[in-house]
Amino acid sequence: MIRYALTRLALLVVGLLVASVLIFLSLRVLPGDVALLIAGTDSTPAQVAAIRERLGLDAPLPAQYLDWMGGLVRGDLGSSLVNGSSVAGELADKARITVPLGILSLGIALVIAVPFGVLSAVRRRRPDGTALSVVAQALAAVPAVWAGMMLVVVFAVWLGLLPAQGFPRGGWSDPGAALRALILPALTIGIIEGAMLMRFVRSATLQAIGQDYVRTAAAKGLTRTQALVRHGLPNVALSVVTVLGLQVAGILVGAVVIEQLFTLPGIGRMLVADVGARDLPKVQGELFVLTGFVLIVGFLVDLLHRALDPRQRETAA
To answer: Which of 66, 80, 258, 291 has the fewest CB atoms in 10 Å of its CB?
Structure first.
């Protein structure tokens, strides 16, 4: 297990390095001159050149990359070109909205996916099981923006139960108001991600139902449901753990869109604004932190899967 963890850790470091190179190069090919954008359209070439020199944008790309990586190693993500604020500080501030939104969305997705996925598999030959499967396929194909707008119309406009947009000025000083502001965005992401995960749970449950150990347990006197719950669902849980890393990535991508729709001042909304302003240090830092978070979640999921599944340990031995 220790050797496997060290191998995966080495792959994680390589993945972070590759991601940093791709992020750095992709931002350098964007059209436009950052120095000219900061100086303004009325600036002289000398003023633009001075800004470019001050920001280090006239240095060769390898030197710029090494300078950025040196800051990352020291935990310094740089400063904004627009307002001079610390990138790490702004990320920490915006994470107070995006992280709770992601956790709430993931919880909703699991609450939808696990029970309904198992139920649709167990009752696959009955109308309700077929209906659940069809609904899951339809919801998985729904665009997040449209789903969010429909939830706003129903719960904010018609019923008046929840706020349609925004986040309390005092943040989490009023936890009730803050939580109410996150419910509709989290439902939007959670329902769509839950529908996609539900299809996977249904498929894993169907495989478990067909396994010999489940049939053997049923032959020894257990009902099919008891045999599935006692012997099949632990294997289904292992399969669900495997795809949780992908679900986290999907939730992060969904948060970028949903924070725009619900005007939530989180990391996703900040990222879109910074790309528009060509604030390269902030965009680099934000993309690297988000990418690193997804890679670390994948690393932890792999370790958890390895620890829970005795077959993998036996294969390695």
So the answer is: 66
Nearest to 253 by CA among 293, 309, 201: 293
Collapse the DSSP code of 82 into the 3-class scheme (helix H, G, I; strand E, B; otherwise coil) and give the result. coil
Long-range contacts of 224-227 (CB under 8 A, 24+ apart): 224/122, 225/122
State whether residue 86 is helix, strand or coil.
Answer: strand
212-231 confidence digits (pLDDT tens): 777 787 777 777 777 777 77
> What dihedral angle (degrees, nearest 10) is formed by the CA atoms of 3, 8, 101, 103?
-30
Instruction: Return d(Cα 228, Cα 139) in angstroms, integer.
Output: 27
Q: Is the pLDDT of residue 317 over 60?
A: no
Q: Which residue has the tokens 């018609």?
A: 158
Ranked by mean pLDDT, which of 151-155, 162-166, 215-219, 307-311 comes out on top? 151-155
Whole-number Å distance between alpha carbons of 179 and 184: 10
pTM for this predicted structure: 0.84
- 15 within 8 A of 38, measured Cβ to Cβ: no
Q: What is the pLDDT of residue 303?
A: 85
**Burial track 142-181 (b if 16+ CB lie within 10 A, e otherwise):** eebeebbeebbeebeeeeeebbbeebbeeeeeeeeebeeb
Task: Tell me how far the alpha carbon of residue 174 is from its chain's centroid.
Answer: 26
pLDDT digits 0-9 by tens, 7-16: 888 999 999 9
Distance CA 292, CA 289 (A): 5
Q: Name the nearest CA neighbour of 64 among 51, 50, 48, 53.
A: 53
DSSP assignment of 127-143 equals HHHHHHHHHHHHHHTS-
Q: pLDDT tens for residues 289-314?
A: 988 888 888 888 888 877 777 666 65
Amino acid (1-letter code) at residue 40: G
Q: Specify whether the CB–CB gap between 180 and 165 falls below 8 A.
A: no
